[in-house]
Amino acid sequence: MAIGNKLMVAGVGMLASMVAQKAVQAVWGALTGEEPPNPNDPEVPAPVAFTWAIASGIGLLVAQVFSNRYAARKYAKPVNKPARIEF
């Protein structure tokens, strides 16, 4: 894969992860009425910390799938062959 395509994949991935993190934080705030907790804070109850960690992880994984699929389509289009993007 050419360096330009690698940079595109990295850029799309970073942008998607930032958007996903903000979206998960907004959804958390809308559902709980509170700021997202710091799961490493010992004063945060364990169920809340685990729930936040799981929700955050799911949001980032979904964003990764979408960004990988987007980058694969963009990379495959100019060369007319399926792209296989691995990290």
Structure description:
The protein has 87 residues and is mostly helical. The chain has one domain (3-30, 45-78). Helix content is 74%, strand content 0%. The protein is built from 2 helices and no strands. It has helices spanning 3-32, 46-79. The protein is elongated and about 50 Å long. The model has no long low-confidence stretch (mean pLDDT 84).
Query: How many distinct beta strands?
Result: 0
Radius of gyration: 17 Å
Order of helices and strands: HH
Shape: elongated
Separation of termini? 12 Å
Number of domains: 1
Mean pLDDT: 84
Protein structure class: mainly alpha
Largest sheet: none
Low-confidence blocks of residues: none
Instruction: Assign a percent range to the helix content.
Output: over 70%
Estimate what percentage of residues fall within beta strands: under 5%
Secondary structure: elements and pairs:
Blueprint: H1 3-32, H2 46-79
Helix pairs in contact: 1-2
Relevant terms:
mainly alpha; 87 residues; 2 helices
Give a short overview.
With 87 residues, the chain is mostly helical. It is 74% helix and 0% strand.
